[in-house]
Specification:
single chain; mainly alpha
């Protein structure tokens, strides 16, 4: 039997693909969340820098 046909019929391969898709979705959500969080963090550090420069 063709090795690719075995791979298609193998339930373990399907499960591995499903877990891979779940991990990919989690990573995409994390990247989106970090981008939102980065904007506020950069603003905070810019404010700190301005205060230190003005008072230092």
């Amino acid at each position: 039997m063709n090795p690719f046909a075995k791979l298609i019929r193998d339930k373990k391969a399907a499960t591995a693909i499903e877990y891979g898709l779940i991990v990919a979705l989690i990573v995409i959500a994390m990247i989106a969340g970090l981008q939102v969080f980065a904007g506020s963090t950069i603003g905070m550090w810019n404010s700190v820098q301005q205060n230190v420069a003005a008072n230092g």
